[in-house]
Design a protein that fits this description.
The chain is mostly helical. It contains 7 helices and no strands.
Length: 184
């Protein structure tokens, strides 16, 4: 549930912006994979390379955009969509920062770094405000307790039992009464 009145609209705007951004990325790689690859100095030397560029760099952002749109129109999935966008864009940002450090491509990557940083942080904002992350440790703790309880019950039922003493047939009738009962 949203805590602030503006949060549903902010989360919708973030999901819409992310869906549009991902759709534009996929359109670029599906429509003109050779041109998109050439912009990054990548040469596609075979038809298979062009198809792979379409499928990997075009289809995955398109699928992510469609998922963001589904989460946008379904109010129950809005938080899931925000987390999805934050994780997808955040992961791309972390890998890009790693590439900038290792490859020394800060100047060439600056425009994309700014876009990924703003998109990722705008997705994390409503998640923080909605209080999802403060309740997450409680959810994990409850789940851990439930798992431990289930494992404990399973251990009780699955452990080997002590062997039963064999009592010959009819011996139950000839039992010797306990010492307290004999003394009366």
């Amino acid at each position: 549930m949203m805590r602030h009145r503006a949060m549903p609209w902010i989360s919708r705007a973030v999901l819409l912006a992310a869906a549009l951004l991902l759709a534009l990325i996929s359109r670029k790689f599906i429509g003109d994979p050779a041109g998109a690859a050439a912009a990054s100095n990548i040469a596609l030397n075979s038809p298979l390379a062009v198809t792979n560029m379409r499928a990997s760099f075009g289809a995955f952002p398109l699928g992510c955009a469609l998922f963001a749109l589904v989460c946008l129109v379904t109010s129950g999935l809005r938080r899931t969509g925000l987390i999805f966008v934050a994780l997808i864009i955040g992961t791309a940002l972390i890998v890009r920062i790693f590439g900038v450090i290792v490859d020394g491509t800060f100047t060439e990557s600056l425009r994309v770094l700014i876009a990924e940083t703003s998109c990722s942080s705008s997705a994390w904002g409503p998640i923080w405000v909605n209080g999802f992350l403060p309740t997450f440790p409680r959810f994990v703790a409850r789940r851990a307790v439930a798992t431990a309880r289930a494992a404990s019950l399973r251990w009780r039922h699955d452990r080997p039992r002590a062997p039963h003493r064999c009592v010959p047939a009819g011996a139950a009738d000839r039992r010797v009464p306990p010492a307290a009962a004999r003394s009366r």
